[in-house]
Amino acid sequence: MNTLQRLRTPTLRLVNMGTETGVVANSIQNKLQTALEATHLEVINESYMHNVPKGAETHFKVVVVSDKFDGLALIKRHRLVNDILKEELKNGVHALSIVAKTTKQWDESEKIVESSPSCRGGFGK
């Protein structure tokens, strides 16, 4: 594999604090990868940070890098991701944090995604 091929090989990562990756996380990864042809994709299950049953798949952060975001404002990128994942959002995914960058933006960044804040328990607690 030459250097150019390595650079174009998508980086895919599912992150789950449990022992197994869940059905919802896999669905999110497959849909985003297929629709956006992501060059970098992280699906992070953050459910463990919230008051949900062990093994829940209700809170996610996605880091998605795609050339299909070129020329799109950030709000349009988020709407696109939300549209791709509309079934998951209707059926149990309670929260979705999105980091959506073009390949150029990602390459020029430090490639560090900040941790999500701790859950405050809802209702302003």
Secondary structure: elements and pairs:
Layout: H1 3-8, E1 11-15, H2 23-36, E2 40-45, E3 59-65, H3 74-84, H4 86-90, E4 95-101, H5 103-108
Parallel strand pairs: 1-2, 3-4
Antiparallel strand pairs: 2-3
Task: Please name the defining characteristics of this protein.
125 residues; alpha/beta; four-stranded mixed β-sheet; 5 helices; globular; disordered N terminus
Overall description:
The protein has 125 residues and is of the alpha/beta class. It is built from five helices and four strands. It has helices at residues 3-8, 23-36, 74-84, 86-90, 103-108; strands at residues 11-15, 40-45, 59-65, 95-101. Strands 1-2-3-4 form a four-stranded mixed beta sheet. The N and C termini lie far apart (52 Å). 23% of the residues are buried.
| End-to-end C-alpha gap | 52 Å
Could you report the average pLDDT, rounded to the nearest whole number? 84
H and E order: HEHEEHHEH
Content-based structural category = alpha/beta
β-strand number = 4
Q: Reading side by side through the largest sheet, how are the strands ordered?
A: 1-2-3-4
